[in-house]
Design brief:
elongated; about 575 residues; 7 strands; seven-stranded parallel beta sheet
């Protein structure tokens, strides 16, 4: 008795096989960043499966229209296919390596290693076979159910019902068993990481830091990123050595999610304000309301820039809204970062309004990647930001940022999507390096700045990429994006989505790594009186050295905790 065809993975019809191969070739084209072999294999496998599905649909339509091919022509077609497949794959891989190396050279990275192509092909082939096996198994399951139903109903109705029942049962199994267990495992793992206590980080002794003397926030409940944020605060002595004048200890107020896993963002915001008041934050010249990324990470390069510029006369306040990395936090509850950003700003702003007008500190907001997504949430638009703050710096915005998306889509005619000018740059401006902020006239009043890179997949990925060609691929490519990058339906979305996982694995100044750009950004947006370009350059070097000495960096670019979105 011969085995059912479903288990013969080598029995692949010509049309679906052709579509699968063509899709895999397209997946080898360049996107925003150099792609490691394993990730390239994943993209090719998923693309090939989608191509196979489209090809299967085309084949089914042809059969329904009774378009048949003789056995002789079918054999000839397979021979031609094999020849084209061999030559086309070799050419596509050679082109892929050329594009990848050109991109790596442009970014200052090493050329591909010898095994890149082999690993990519093996991973892609193995995953495609696995995906196809699962797909065919599900199809066989649906047909089995359809045969059982056909005893009671017409065949065509039974086939449809069989497919629907199989789909529902599969979804229920995956959603309630597989995904549930996976989510629980991920949740437990990152909860454990959040509670991890770094023994070489003692609790602070300064009253100006959360978890210090008289604080209502315990050192243990700050979470890993909260403890790092407090521990990395520069001292008054360190700042004074830079400024050559007596400096203050910067205030840092932080509230973690605690140790019980119960997250009450509204209560956290109240505690953050209480901490800010206890530490003397409302008596400082500047208050920086910083929304963190998924696990609560706050960009030290941004926070310390203000602290050094203002000679320690600053307060930075933040609160943790999740212990998951940004990609998982966004998938689990994409609105939580926005809720956290809104609640924290509103709580601080409410207290700030109660202060005598002459004693109110300058109020600024900041955030990186998912932190920028949340930091925008308290505001309705540019004018609202200008009226209720003294400035803002958002680094590496996500493609889903509400205000960023609006400012970009409503940009002045003739300005590109990767470097837009909104409303002549009166309030909001964009920069790649923090030094150059294009606009139509002098940047007066409150300044709202966005730091973004033309090759940052965190910024340019959206689900719309599947079927909508974005302006950044209609217009001239960015300085660090290959001219050969083209929009391919679905494929470009897959490529850019996977590129998010390596957005921090590139040199500083590329992808999702912004290095000292926030220093230059704050120097433009909110420098104190008497500040100079020379001081900015000197400060950038100081903070770069501090970053190397205290390197524990963000998890933000989907799965990475190194680098920087």
């Amino acid at each position: 008795m011969t085995a059912p065809k479903v288990w013969r993975l080598d029995l692949m019809p010509l049309v679906p096989a052709s579509f699968a191969l063509a899709a895999a070739w397209l997946a080898l084209t360049p996107a925003l960043l150099p792609r490691p072999a394993v990730f390239q294999g994943v993209v090719c496998a998923v693309a090939a499966l989608i191509g196979y599905g489209i090809g299967s649909l085309v084949r089914w339509v042809a059969k329904e229209l009774r378009l048949t091919v003789s056995q002789r022509n079918r054999t000839l077609a397979w021979r031609v296919f094999i020849g084209i497949a061999f030559l086309g794959t070799a050419y596509s891989l050679l082109q892929h390596v050329s594009w990848q190396n050109e991109m790596r050279q442009m970014l200052g990275m090493e050329s591909l290693e010898f095994g890149h192509v082999s690993i990519a092909v093996l991973v892609g082939a193995a995953l495609f076979v696995l995906f196809l096996f699962i797909s065919r198994s599900l199809r066989a399951f649906g047909r089995f159910i359809g045969r059982k139903i056909s005893a009671l109903l017409p065949v065509r109705v039974a086939v449809v019902l069989g497919g629907l029942v199989a789909a529902v049962l599969t979804f229920a199994l995956v959603d309630n068993v597989v995904l549930a267990r996976l989510v629980n495992t991920v949740d437990a793992s990152f909860y454990t990481i959040n509670q991890e206590f770094t023994t070489d980080l003692p609790a602070p002794e300064s009253v100006h830091l959360s978890a210090g003397p008289n604080s209502n926030v315990s050192w243990a409940k700050l979470g890993r990123q909260g403890r790092l944020f407090i521990a990395q605060a520069p001292t008054a002595k360190e700042i004074g050595e830079f400024s050559n004048t007596p400096a203050k200890q910067p205030v840092r107020a932080y509230v973690g999610v605690g140790t019980d896993g119960d997250i009450d963002l509204r209560e956290e915001a109240k505690m953050a304000v209480a901490e800010l008041e206890r530490t003397g934050g409302f008596e400082r010249a500047v208050i920086n309301i910083a929304t963190g990324t998924g696990r609560g990470w706050v960009n030290e390069n941004s926070a310390q820039a203000l602290e050094y510029m203002w000679n320690g006369d600053t307060a930075t306040v933040s609160m943790q809204y999740s212990y998951l990395p940004s990609w998982a936090s966004f998938l689990a509850d994409g609105d939580r970062s926005q809720e956290a950003g809104r609640l924290l700003f509103d709580a601080v702003y409410h207290h700030w309004l109660q202060l005598p007008a002459k004693k109110r500190p300058l109020l600024v907001v900041s955030g990186e990647s998912l932190g920028s997504f949340g930091g925008e949430a308290a505001f309705s638009g540019a004018q609202d930001l200008a009226e209720r703050t003294s400035g803002a710096l958002f680094v590496g915005p996500t493609g889903n940022n509400t205000l960023w998306s609006r400012f970009t889509s409503e940009r002045d005619p003739g300005t590109p999507e990767i470097a837009p000018i909104f409303d002549d740059g009166k309030i909001v401006r964009f920069s790649r390096d923090g030094k150059t902020w294009p606009g139509g006239h002098d940047w007066m009043g409150t300044r709202i700045g966005y730091l973004q890179h033309d090759n940052d997949p965190i910024t340019w990925w959206t689900s719309d990429l599947a079927f909508h060609k974005p302006d950044w691929l209609k217009e001239k490519r960015g300085e660090y994006v290959l001219d050969q990058v083209r929009w391919i339906p679905v494929i470009t979305m897959l490529q850019t989505g996977v590129d998010q996982f390596v957005a921090n694995d590139v040199p500083v100044g590329q992808g999702h790594l912004f290095g000292q750009a926030p220093v230059y950004g704050w120097a433009t947006i909110l420098a104190p009186e008497g500040w100079s370009d020379a001081k900015t350059e000197a400060l950038a070097k100081v903070i770069a050295q501090r970053s190397k000495a205290t390197a524990d960096t963000p998890e933000d670019a989907v799965g990475s905790e190194t680098g920087a979105p």
